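Worked example (supplementary).
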Amino acid sequence: MTTTVSSRSAASVRIVEVGPRDGLQNVKFPIPTPTKLELVDRLHKTGLTSIEITSVVSPKAIPQLADCRQVLGNERIKSLMSDSTLRLPVLIPNVKGLDIAIASGVREVAVFVSATEGFSKANINATVDEGVARARLVAQKARATTLSVRGYVSCIFADPYDGPTPQAAVLKVVRELLDMGCYEVSLGDTVGVGTARDVASLFEYLRASGVPLSKLAGHFHDTYGQAVSNVWQAYQCGVRVFDSSVGGLGGCPFAPGAKGNVATEDVVYLFQQAGVQTGVDLMKLVETGTWISKELNKANESRAGSALAIKNGLMQRTKVIHSPEKFHLQWTLLSQTEGLKIYRSGVNIKLLLDRPMNGNALTTSMISDLTQFFEQARDDKTISRIIIFGEGKFFCTGMDLAKGSSPVAQSKSDSDAQYERLTRLFELIDNAPQVTIACINGPAFGGGVGLAFTCDIRIAVKAATMTLSEAKLGLCPATISKYVIREWGVAFAREAMLTTRPISMLELKSLGLVSSLVEDVNELSSALDSYLVKLKAAGPTASTMCKELVRLAWTNAGGVQQATGIKNLFDEMMSSEGEAAIGLKAFQSGQKTLDWDDVRQQKFRAKL
Ligand SMILES: CC(C)(COP(=O)([O-])OP(=O)([O-])OC[C@H]1O[C@@H](n2cnc3c(N)ncnc32)[C@H](O)[C@@H]1OP(=O)([O-])[O-])[C@@H](O)C(=O)NCCC(=O)NCCSC(=O)C[C@@](C)(O)CC(=O)[O-]
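After joint prediction of all chains, the assembly is encoded as:
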């Protein structure tokens, strides 16, 4: 029998926000710790009183939460943890994690088990019984130290490997968790396949088997779009606690295809409209969902959140693009030397660093081949753009440090020669008349960061990082500093050099240092091709002039050289010989955009 809403006098629910843990652990690229801290703080300010802040897990298992100690050690988090009106559970897989949590002042932990064998094996490499035994050890020790313990059950309706879950399997682990002292057990539809009928059937079965519904919470994922309806059905059954994630963050690495949690905004909207109290300020929550989606460069998965954000001017309506513009250019291999392949597509040249076994570290011969290319390209009007791309896992790991070939700690003349080589290459790239683009397929170190930042534009995979690692090796980013400091700014560059920390693409993007981010290297190739097609709209000589304007402003802002340079460029652009003659003719004849690649190719057809 289900309990109806009308039969309950206290119309209120408790929402457990799991975005900072369940949500963020599934994001594929590194998230800066300050973003995580700000998320918790913003969520707290919405009125949410239960927020799962992190998980003390091995960084190898879940790299995304490797900074859990920093999060727990943060002063603001500590002050929230000391507030007895809040529940801030931390997910704990084992006793080692529990000890760290206890030492950090955590007052509530969560343990988890799977109802099914396949998922248990994939998630924690243990059988269900072994998982229960591990959870029991954690729960017992936590209870002995007066910590509250919350329990999670995964795969209540189906397992990604084993198929549908028998209800008796759920009952068994729920009883185990209650028996080990969990004050509440959250039932997770990890794969997000359940529907309202499944929810009603399972909760009725558990109630009839003697499990008090007041001890249960609903945790629904939205893979099949059923999560809000499942929340409502569980509420109708008498459940009063629901897990959800702001902006619908989440997924599950071991449940292929699983979408994020039900969005907190959608749950709050649902209950608000039904006159059920949540204690949450919906508009503050919408602001938080909009903010974190932007920070993570992802779509806001909350339907109510997006609608309210658009209505209140927090977010632009997204255009529905039925057939996204994707272009695949034909690239022809022009030459191949040791560590470098050169491709051409029309007026575009792609330089592929091709020493993947050594992280594309720059050998003397690679530097020399790149230098030769840029020297020849300087006067080659058939080339409008030059792209640097990396093959394999890394973009470029900088100067070659390998035994026997590295010029470090050799003679003074070796050192001078290396200085000349690096300086010359970076200057040539920096002064190239063409538009230069670094396509960052993976992490870059030292001189690799230099390569990326002598280029005009960067597009990257989200998981890539930039590390000025030189100081770790007793070196310093000497020749590249000219470009890195110019592009990054003094304070940020200094901090990056001194800490030698990997800087995430998200951080660089937030500083405007990377133009766009994509999920993986396949997307990077097509993003590059689409980007190159868009760049056809800018005249090649006009682009060179734009680069020169920026250079003048950087080297001589407000000075005579800048003023003279601007005047010269002005004369050049106004001349009847210039590109403007073609551009204006097209404009005046009603042509909205000109294909400048085509113009260039026609002019130099014989040479191409
Ligand atoms: C990149 C990770 C984290 C990969 O970490 P990993 O665990 O070695 O990764 P992996 O298992 O994927 O292996 C990558 C392979 O690439 C090699 N490798 C990798 N980098 C280089 C390199 N530079 N030179 C020569 N070989 C390199 C590395 O040794 C390894 O070879 P294996 O051991 O399999 O034979 C690690 O190998 C590492 O820390 N490498 C050093 C990166 C670094 O610190 N680069 C800065 C170089 S100094 C510099 O660029 C100076 C400069 C130019 O800035 C000065 C100036 O500005 O004037």
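Two points are worth noting when inspecting this output. The longest strand covers residues 108-114. The mean pLDDT is 91.
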